[in-house]
Structures are given as C-alpha cells and as structure tokens.
Amino acid sequence: TYRVRNTETGLCLALARDLSGRIGTTNNTQVVAESYTALPHQDWRMVYTNATNFSLANAFSGLVIQPSGS
C-alpha cells in the first residue's frame, strides 16, 4: 500500500469521517487531507485499469477515488 502525502504541508490523503466520527466506507465518502495518523484509512492501493493508467483504491474500505460529479 501507499500513503499519499503533500510534500508542502505533510498532510496525507484520507477518507473523511462521518458526522458520528466513523471513517466513511460508503459511496460518496469524501477524501480529505489530514495529519499523518498511521491508520489504514490513509493507505491506498494502485489498481491498474490498463497498461498505463491506474486508480487509487483505499486499503481500508476498497473505495476508489473518482472526481466529484462523475
């Protein structure tokens, strides 16, 4: 797995928490940048869609990042 970290801020890409504080695991869960916590909702897998392209899937939930509105 990979951790996606902003080199300027040090913040990591992660699944957002819902209103009750649980890490989102359903479709339309937002992604956020947050401080490194070493929790699995910050871990990502590269899933190849063909020989040259890939998607990022969250290791905790299996959710794949998609642009909003798609």
How many helices? The count is 0
| Overall pLDDT | 93
Structural class: mainly beta
Q: Please give the largest β-sheet.
A: 3 strands, antiparallel
Number of strands: 5
H-E string: EEEEE
The residue fraction in helices comes out at under 10%
Topology:
Elements: E1 2-3, E2 12-15, E3 31-34, E4 43-48, E5 54-58
Antiparallel strand pairs: 1-4, 2-3, 4-5
Fold and architecture overview:
The protein has 70 residues and is mainly β. Helices cover 0% and strands 30% of the residues. The chain is built from no helices and 5 strands. It has strands spanning 2-3, 12-15, 31-34, 43-48, 54-58. The strands form 2 sheets. A 3-stranded antiparallel beta sheet has the order 1-4-5, with no helix packed on it. A two-stranded antiparallel sheet has the order 2-3. The N and C termini lie far apart (25 Å). The mean pLDDT is 93.
Keywords:
single chain, 70 residues, mainly beta, 3-stranded antiparallel sheet, 0% helix, 30% strand, globular
In short:
With 70 residues, the protein is mostly beta strands. The chain is built from no helices and five strands.
